[in-house]
Amino acid sequence: MTGENWSLRESSTFDRNSIDYIRNAAATGLYRIRGFGAKRRVPNFDDLLMKGASMSRYPLEGYRERCGTDVVLGARHASKPVKLKIPVTIAGMSFGSLSANAKEALGRGASEAGTSTTTGDGGMTGEEREHSKTLVYQYLPSRYGMNPDDLRRADAIEVVVGQGAKPGGGGMLLGQKITSRVAEMRCLPEGIDQRSACRHPDWTGPDDLAIKILELREITGWEKPIYVKCGAARPYYDTALSIKAGADVVVIDGMQGGTAATQEVFIEHVGQPTLVAVKEAVQALCDFGMHRKVQLVVGGGIRSGADVAKALALGADAVSIGTAALVAIGDQDPALDDEYRKLGSAPGFWEDYQDGSDPAGITTQDPELSSRLDPILAGRKLANYLRVLAMEAQTLARACGKSHVHNLEPDDMVALTVEAAAMAGVPLAGTNWIPGKEAG
């Protein structure tokens, strides 16, 4: 047989992406840095279904019977806990990785919808504080822009130990995005690549963290809730240790979470799926008698009201969104197709958040590009999206006969795959079997 008669087959191990990776590494001696999030498929909320109600349980009438969505975060120790109208928050994304207009849009949209937004690495901007009714201040290993005055101006403080896209790794901000304003806020040289530390400089474990949390409480007069955020590395133990250290709220971020910039090897190969993160964190809270006393916020790949409802059914008190919020305000807009193609990409595929060339004006510090984003219009779009998430979660809760979204429970769901059943701890559809759990 001649070669012409053989059909061409791509190797599943050395596919075109693997070959491209090897060739680039060999040519440059550099590993790849990019933004966005993991592109590999892992079991996720789409692998779970809500059962709904019929005879054995009665659904609620959508236009007549109330279904609550409000949530209180941080009442364990704080005298002024965070009170939100909806259980969807905006995750930390820094000024530096995002433009000032984007940060303002996030604040406007979150405030209109009755929820909170978060500063991210790099400090608090005036625009963000002014337009965010409820603002969570992130306290990261870098301490960029950190000062006691801003801690007091915040409504809550989030001590960041890890992030879902890169647990065990620090943040990155490349030099082209470090403008004079960003450099001044972070006390960095302008135009020089920055990489944050991967761990806090003044503590190494939960006992030290407890001291740090006490320090933060004293600085803020015991008013502000203290969150502890971890990537989904070892969610059970990280949640347990956060409880021990005195956290009011635990934030767990699954590997589907996005980032502005990190090594691709982190994005695709470190961390655990969000399904695992929820189940293990809830188990730790239950084992220590702190479920619903210490609130759990879960992030990483949340896109729809169905995702929200399923996360709450697994035991979370709220969810956080990052990438989805950026899409809502204009990221990956098909109207910018020509400009994305000039960058060698396309809407829905563009991932180079790190290089500052975002045609939507969101993940850039270029004045001309960032001016394209109207923060008022973008804020309205975000508010619309957040309202849809809340309404969809309500719709599913009513269908399950629940008068509050927090009344959803694992028994309201089944899994479509063995993997999702094991990760989420719910039965495989059509069976009573939860893989890994002993019968009886």
Shape annotation? globular
Terminal CA distance reads 60 Å
CATH superfamily descriptor:
Aldolase class I
User: What average pLDDT do the residues reach?
Assistant: 94
Biggest sheet, strands in spatial order?
5-15-14-12-11-8-7-6
Give the low-pLDDT segments: none
Strand content: 5-15%
CATH topology: TIM Barrel
Write down the Rg. Answer: 22 Å
User: Would you state the CATH class?
Assistant: Alpha Beta
Major sheet attributes: 8 strands, parallel
- SS-derived structural category: alpha/beta
Number of domains: 1
Q: Percentage of helical residues?
A: 25-40%
Helix tally equals 15
Question: How would you describe this protein?
Answer:
The chain has one domain (36-424): Aldolase class I (TIM Barrel, Alpha-Beta Barrel). 34% of the residues lie in helices and 14% in strands. The chain has helices at 16-28, 100-113, 126-131, 148-153, 180-186, 206-219, 235-245, 264-269, 274-287, 305-313, 323-329, 337-342, 367-370, 375-399, 418-424; strands spanning 33-36, 48-50, 71-73, 82-84, 88-90, 117-118, 135-139, 156-160, 172-173, 194-195, 226-231, 249-253, 259-263, 295-299, 318-321, 413-415. The strands form 5 sheets. The chain has an 8-stranded parallel β-sheet. A two-stranded antiparallel sheet has the order 1-13. β11, α7 and β12 (249-253) form a beta-alpha-beta unit. The longest helix has 25 residues, at 375-399. It is globular, with a radius of gyration of 22 Å.
